[in-house]
Amino acid sequence: MSTPRRPKGSVKDPIPLGWRVERESRDTFTRLAAKAGISGAALFDMMVQSLELDDRGLPTWVPREDSKGQLPIDTP
Length: 76
What we know:
- Helices cover 32% and strands 0% of the residues.
- The chain contains 2 helices and no strands.
- The N and C termini lie far apart (61 Å).
């Protein structure tokens, strides 16, 4: 089975991602993309575009610093 591809020219400024990730995570991501009938790159773009961000501008699932046992310091 071949990897689904997006139409030629549909990506505005394509670049390769050179990150090293856990093999199991990459394999899971690849399976999810295949199940959706799209490429891994298309799934990545869709995920980034649909991230729900909090008041810090970070995904809502990223832990807050104050959750590490530190008390917040009020600044005047």
